[in-house]
Amino acid sequence: MKSKKLTDAARGQDCTFNIVGVCNYDPETTVFCHLPDESNGFGKKSDDISGADGCSACHDVVDGRVQNAEYENHKDWYDFRAFRRTLVRRIYQGVITVKGLK
Fold it and tell me: Which residues does the annotation mark as catalytic?
């Protein structure tokens, strides 16, 4: 599942990972970070629904280019929090709509 609207909506947004000791808090570096899920595999990114907005520093850690013990020890928590924050953001941005939501 690919969606340019979902991934492009990350531009200029605050980082949703905010990894302690890593995050650069610079919205100018924010991109859509794909999270591991059942849709990915060797050489294949996860679907665009499975990701979150992350600054360049957090993205490097999430993608494994930079090792960080804080993230590794709390990976599930950081990933879920970032995913949820991004999902709510996309709803407010109007990129994702939920029928019946008030």
Answer: 34
